[in-house]
Amino acid sequence: MSPPASVRLLRTGYRAPIARPDGTGDGPTDAELATLARAKDPRAATLVWDRYAGLVRGVLHRTLGPGHDVEDLLQDVFIGFFRNVGALRDASSLRPFLIGIALRTARTALRKKRVRRWLRLSNDGALPEVASAHADARTREAVRRLYAVLDELDDRERLAFVLRHAEGHELTETAELLGVSLATVKRVLARAEAHVATRAREDDLLSDWTEGPHE
Asked: Disulfide-capable partner of 13 in 7, 116, 132, 172 (CB 3.0 to 4.6 Å)?
């Protein structure tokens, strides 16, 4: 599947609001927010949540797909942020710091899902439909099949694919968020893209999404 088709499917059913990392408009800058959080200022929790809950929710949603309780994981991300905010060296890097915590939370959730499947503590692995009033049945099924393909990737390949093609990060940003070199992220993405493209061509529904736009 070509990246544009993947982006269309991965973004189906959820549009995250755009955060204001530079603090434009009303409110403090990211650096000021980080300073408040490190000082355990009671205002920090509401301010950081209001600015970044939508962004983090979107990262979790597009990384994990249907079948996960994103709202519980969202809470985990912000609990982890306030627990570890002292490790944030550059106060202006609040946004990537939060995304990094979201990715680690998502990776843990993916591993737990695999363990449950191995131990037969869940169903046969079939994912439920995407909860979206804006997606028709055909689109929901395509999303379900795409995430079934993403389940075949290892954690790093999946996270790299989503960061690059669904979240729209540049290669250098993707590498930094995953904590790997640029050369490594290129290799990881190449494997992930090749696998998704091959599996999509084999699927009667996903192959349709590679042949033209589905707006």
From this structure: 132
The reply to whether the predicted model has a pTM over 0.70 is no
| Long-range CB contacts (within 8 A, 24+) of 151-155 | 151/125, 152/195, 152/199, 153/192, 153/195, 153/196, 155/107, 155/110, 155/111
In this structure, the number of other CB atoms found within 10 A of the CB of residue 55 comes to: 19
Which pLDDT score is estimated for 81? 95
State pLDDT tens for residues 17-69.
Answer: 434 444 445 678 999 999 999 999 999 999 999 999 999 999 998 888 876 78
Residue with tokens 């968020």: 177
Amino acid, single-letter form, for residue 22: D
Count of CB atoms situated within 10 Å of the CB of 39: 9
Phi, psi at residue 136, to the nearest 5°?
Answer: -80, 175
76-111 per-position pLDDT tens digit: 999 999 999 999 989 889 999 999 999 999 988 887
> Residue 76 has which token pair?
């985990």
